[in-house]
Amino acid sequence: YTEAWDADKTSIHVMPDTPTILLAKANAANVSHKHYQKAWDEAKAKSYDIRADAIPIKQAKASRDIASEYKYKQTHEKEKGHYIGCKTAQEDPKLSQATRAMLLQNDRLYKKAYNDSKTQIHIPVDAMSVQAAKECQTLVSDVDYRQYLHQWTCLPDQNDVIHARKAYDLQSDAIYKSDLEWLRGIGWLPNDSPEVRRVKQAQDLLSDNVYRTPIDSLKYTSIVDSPDVVLAKANAEQVS
Q1: What is the arithmetic mean of pLDDT over 5-15?
Q2: What's one Pfam family here (predicted)?
Q3: Which residues contact 130 (CB under 8 A, 6 or more apart)?
């Protein structure tokens, strides 16, 4: 009975042109590493045809020769011992000529004489430009603008001087506070004075602790024959 059903379960028929199958094939092609490197593998399988006089080969050789330390020092090693030198660099005419050309081309030495001559300026004192500059400086100067016209001299016993000294003493902060230093300690009151007791009484009245006395700290007893107690006892006897 189940043999036909088991055989049918193993055979699945799916149409090859359904959108799901096409999408799965496209995703498999995109994800496949072998398909991704297919063109590269085909290019590697072909033989390279690079000539010895090709531009990339020449460029690589030139770069290698430039970077090589041996090639860099090869000319210097060959020319060793062939120099016709002098004892010092100053005696060599070529080196002296090169040094002189370098000094001529040096901008700092070229402008040295000009910079030295700029600091040496000789102008006569009575020149018109100097006089005009002095007059302008005098007119513009704030010191000369605020120059006092007269220098007064006052005697120490003059009435104006005495009056000014008294005014300064009244305005002085040290003299103003000298009375305060002298009055310190005069306003002391004993502990049992009426003013102190009045302040303490007012403090007790305004104190929150005294105003809010805890109920459990007060001692009280209930009245035995109060109307509430009598009524409660009568109700208890009636309900009993």
Answers
A1: 79
A2: Nebulin
A3: 123, 124
